[in-house]
Write a structure and sequence with these properties.
This protein has 11 helices and 14 strands. Helix 4 packs antiparallel against helix 5 and helix 10 crosses helix 11. 33% of the residues are buried. The longest helix has 18 residues. The protein is elongated. The protein folds into 2 domains: 201 residues, Rossmann fold; 85 residues, Alpha-Beta Plaits (2-Layer Sandwich). By secondary structure, the protein is of the alpha/beta class. The two termini are 38 Å apart. The strands form 3 sheets. It has a 6-stranded mixed beta sheet with strand order 6-7-8-3-9-10, with helices on both faces. It binds adenosine-5'-triphosphate (ATP). The site of adenosine-5'-triphosphate (ATP) has 11 residues, from strand 2 and helix 1.
């Protein structure tokens, strides 16, 4: 389990992380989402033991991560800004990884190189950005990590390669309980793959939930009344409300049964309850928190 407890981090006078808590269960896929500059890369650098917090704890399986060689050997990390030795090709880089990671799997490496269609002899610096990401993925997945940390891994990859990347990840989660934390702006893709979601805003966790639970608790509803009761939505937790003619469109965060009970009590002539996508939940949740976002989208 990855556990981040009350982490604070400032760069000079700027507070990048504030009392941040985050939990990733073993064998699960956790999607970390947030606006630009929310602190995703910063917390990922803490979890990978690159940066030390000003206060708070970061543990993996109960052990502190910072300066912990054993934990790092079991961890695979693909950063947003990739690093390869400038003169190395993939074959040379694989030898470097083999020495670093005790669980290096040569068979898997050979298979993945073929499957991704990468040249082992061309200098990595000559690869396109997308090919460099693929090379990083092949190397990391061949090191058989127990913990896989990915900072915007799929951006810049073509759809066929993205499918292949997710296939490997899902298989390793299912077959050997690999634990995955992935940050991305591609909410549609995260929605199809993650078990839990953490939404970051301005350095703190706005919400961390099981994805199915989160989706079952936020609803888009359309309501119209012939005789509208006064303040019909007073008891509901309304994230957003707008009127379209006589129809009210609301985004509500409450249990489905409770919403139904409150709305039906007013005897509406129209009542529809629709599911929300993760993208919509993200926008409405952050719209409530972040005035800048609210001004842009509403
Ligand atoms: N080393 C540093 N020195 C000063 N400020 C920093 C440093 N690292 C991060 N920050 C600041 O911390 C904030 C969070 O940055 P971070 O890169 O973690 O955001 P992010 O959520 O990953 O953003 P994006 O989605 O744009 O990649 C930003 O305001 C950034 O300028």
């Amino acid at each position: 389990m990855i556990k981040v407890t009350d982490v604070n981090k400032s760069f000079d006078q700027f507070k990048a992380l504030t009392d941040l808590n985050l939990h990733v269960n073993k064998g699960s896929i956790y999607g970390l989402v947030g606006t630009n500059g929310a602190g995703k890369t910063t917390i990922i650098k803490h979890i990978t033991g690159i940066v030390c917090p000003d206060s708070g704890q970061i543990t993996i399986d109960g052990e502190a991560v910072f300066d912990n060689r054993q934990i790092k050997q079991r961890m695979g990390f693909i950063p947003d800004d990739l690093f390869f030795f400038s003169t190395y090709n993939l074959k040379e880089m694989s030898k470097f990884y083999k020495n670093l990671y005790p669980n290096w799997n040569a068979q898997r490496y050979a298979h993945m190189v073929t499957q991704f269609g990468l040249s082992e002899n061309r200098k990595l610096a000559r690869f396109s950005k997308g090919m460099q990401k693929q090379a990083a993925f092949v190397l990391i997945m061949s090191s058989m990590p127990d913990y896989l940390i990915l900072d915007e891994p799929i951006d810049g990859l073509d759809p066929i390669v993205r499918k292949l990347v997710w296939k490997y990840i899902v298989e390793d989660v299912a077959e050997r309980e690999m634990t995955v934390l992935v940050s991305s702006h591609n909410l549609k893709e995260l929605e199809g793959i993650c078990d839990s979601i953490g939404i970051l805003s301005k350095g703190h966790m706005v919400m961390e939930r099981d994805l199915d639970e989160l989706k079952s608790d936020v609803h888009k509803i359309q309501v119209a009344y012939k005789n509208k009761p006064s303040e019909p939505y007073k008891q509901l937790n309304v994230l957003h409300r707008e009127a379209r003619g006589t129809v009210d469109l609301l985004i509500v965060r409450d249990k489905r049964e409770f919403v139904e009970q409150i709305i039906l009590a007013g005897e509406p002539v129209l009542f529809d309850m629709l599911p929300l996508s993760l993208e919509e939940i993200f926008i409405y949740e952050l719209g409530g928190v972040d005035n800048e976002i609210q001004n842009i989208i509403f």
